Amino acid sequence: MPRRAWDFGPPSVEKALGSLPVVARFARRLGIAATIDELCPVRDVAIATHGEVIEALVANRLTSPTPLLRVEDWARSWAVPEVFGIEAATLNDDRVGRALDAIAGQLNAIVGTVGARAITEFGLDVSRLHWDMTSISLHGAYAELDEGHVQPRYGRPKDRRPDLKQVQTGLAVTGDGGIPVLHRAFDGGAGEVNQVVGAMEALRSMAGERRFLLVGDSKLISYGNLHSFADAGITFVAPASKQWVDAATLASAAGHLEVVDADYVAERDAAKPVEARGRYRVGEDTTVVAPKRRADAELRLRRVFVWSSARASAAAHARTKKLDRARGDLERLTGGLGGRHYPDPDAVAARIAQIGRDRRVKTYLRTEIGTDTTGRPTLDWSWDQTALDAEATTDGWYALLTNLDPDDADATEVLRRYKGQDAVERRYGDFKGPLAVAPLFVKNNRRIAALLTVICLALLIFSLIEREVRRAIAPERTMHGLYPENRPARPTGRMIIAALASMRLIPATRAGPAVIPRPTDTQLRLLQLLDTDPTAHLHPP
Q1: Is residue 13 within 8 Å of 76, Cβ to Cβ?
Q2: Tens of pLDDT along 221-277?
Q3: Where would I find the beta strands (DSSP E) of 86-165?
Q4: What are phi and psi of 127, to 5 degrees?
Q5: CA–CA separation, 294 vs 269, rounded Å?
Q6: Backbone dihedral angles phi then psi of residue 282, each to the nearest 5 degrees
Q7: Burial status of residue 49 (CB atoms within 10 A of its CB: 0-12, 13-18, 19 or more)
Q8: Is 0.85 topped by the overall pTM?
Q9: 155 in Cβ contact with 135 (< 8 Å)
Q10: How many CB atoms lie within 10 A of CB 1?
Q11: What pLDDT, in 10s, does the model give residues 487-498?
Q12: Rounded to an integer, what distance in angstroms lies between the CA atom of residue 21 and that of residue 535?
């Protein structure tokens, strides 16, 4: 039987276009390539500059966030040469590595310059900046490390992988759209509380003459940090940890402090009926932070106590849940008394200790262990209602520490300014989600820090795209077309890039110009909202 000749037709000349034109436009507005080329020049005979390579890597993170391998293949299937003017073969592993090595020594300057450009170019309001840190797990031993660059270490990773070394990164995002204008890489074992002053100084330099409020988590608070804020004239808001405001203080405030209803509505509740919204109450006093050395001055701060109905409900639910689980454990223990697992009082006591520890109920678990006439262990247990009631008085309460002037911000305004802190958490979600920062696979610690900067530059563009679309559709909060079923949705960076992902490009030939097959109505609207002409600035073949 003759062998059949398969005819698959001519090879397709279409390339993926997706959000590349949008990314290129925002990268040019931020001056990413120009900044890097000024700080990290190459010889005139170079096929591509370091800035061009890094700009392409930023686009790679936004359109194909996978481990940084075979970038050349990605560039060949996407319209990278046409949009960015860099040949796919140039983005081989060796050239990508050399670009990362080149920028490793200039990261702070690159980040500071691009961040300042973002503030001015996009008119970002930096009067409120939110700071937080997270850990990033690494795969590799990294036995030989370059001095002067971020050092992988074992630590307390947020992903609960203590078997992996980690590095840490800090983000400062604006209250205006959650834009990450500054990032820093830190050693894997660095304490979060000790990194704040350096970030603050970088933010001051970037903000110029603008005054800003620094908002952070509880690790912002230490005497050294607070003293530096006072010297620099920096205002701040941060929640107080148990070290600064313990449960007894919260309980006392809940019972004796004069509180008022706060005129504040959480963003998640804005569309809900009034009766379904979370409620807040606030009150305040002052506290003194004592120095470790007698020669140093005491610092007096405002202490704003906040009660949240949502937090109170969540705390009560969590307590009920853990009590139910502990009750189940105790009932199973009671049913097994005298058996092979619990043959004597010592075994029973060990199990009770474990239940108290694992279920976190030892504060209010009361037990009496004994034996009957046959030597079989006995157990009587109960909940200490007084201890339960005491804990319940603090449900929903937490405290904020601040040096804001009361004439500039009353207790409700302090709460309102703090509440943007979830913006940085959301950006970390993008950092490790759509941009796939974790886990990292790179050759050395120079490239770890450089790759983190590439990803943070991508996150900057990702966030600006989201902000620009939301501003363009205002006062509307939602738009159609981002979900397959066409229901309205509030635009996010992830949705916008996903909606543009199916755009294609037929490259130009000698016979005719480049062609973009008909985009969808949603794609056309997004391009219009982002003021992007996808056919502009295309490079010839």
Answers
A1: no
A2: 888 888 888 877 788 999 998 888 888 888 888 888 889 999 998 888 888 898 899
A3: 128-137
A4: -70, -20
A5: 48
A6: -135, 150
A7: buried
A8: no
A9: yes
A10: 3
A11: 899 999 999 999
A12: 8
